[in-house]
Amino acid sequence: MHNVRGRAAAQASALHPSVLAETERDSAQRCRRVPYRPEHVDTYHEWMKSPELLEMTESEPLTIEEEREMQQSWARDDDKLTFILLDRTAPATPGVTERFGAGMCGDVNLFLNDDEDRACGEIEVMVAETSSRGKGIGREALELMMGYCHRELGVTRFVAKILQSNGPSIALFEKIGFRFVRKVEVFGEVHYELVVGGGAGAAARRAIEGASVGAYDP
């Protein structure tokens, strides 16, 4: 029972990185990731006013008050994890990311929503800032997130649910090694998966071997 409690506590800590945030590998030149904190909400809310982003992420528009409540749920809930992405080549987001020398550009998320397979996680990434697209940030963020979730949460199967019309996202996941599973016409989605060690997980294995954790708070 002690070991079970220990594992549960470790998982809770990994899902709620209030002090620790995974940082880039030595080879990761494009982005950093930090926990989604209250100081990030205003910028995130501005992103999600974009009809394009709402459509591609299958999201509903929220008021700023609802977005603040959503940020708190990300920090509190035990079935999901998010990091804000910082573009290392972009100017700092004023009043928010100066100490990192990088600007907010998107987020990467994982949902543990398969009750029958707790080693399965649904993963997604959004590069919201158009000036940060095409730099490889999305791929790097996904690889690092998979490494973190495999190591800290024991996730061995990653699932991506993508709109059929989102060609760039489909291409991104295929490049990493995700394999097509099914088309879900009712939602206009295609589903992909990657199983770590299943022959298509080279990118995930690289991330697992190289990812590190560093302090977020000064």
Question: Would you identify the regions where 5 or more consecutive residues have pLDDT less than 50?
Answer: 1-10, 18-27
What characterizes the major β-sheet? 7 strands, mixed
Query: Beta-strand level of the residues, as a percent range?
Result: 25-35%
Give average pLDDT, whole number: 84
Termini separation comes to 36 Å
The helix/strand class is alpha+beta
Widest β-sheet, arrangement of strands: 2-3-4-5-6-8-7
Total strands: 9
In sequence order, what are the helices and strands, one letter per element? HEEHHHEEEHEHEEHE
Number of separate domains: 1
Give a verbal description of the structure.
It is a single chain. Strand 4 (103-111) and strand 5 form a beta hairpin. The protein has helices spanning 2-15, 41-47, 51-56, 64-76, 137-153, 167-176, 202-210, and strands spanning 20-23, 31-35, 80-87, 103-111, 120-127, 157-163, 179-184, 189-195, 212-215. The relative contact order is 0.16. It starts with a helix and ends with a strand. It contains seven helices and nine strands; from the N terminus they run H-E-E-H-H-H-E-E-E-H-E-H-E-E-H-E. The protein has a single domain, classed as Aminopeptidase (3-Layer(aba) Sandwich), CATH 3.40.630.
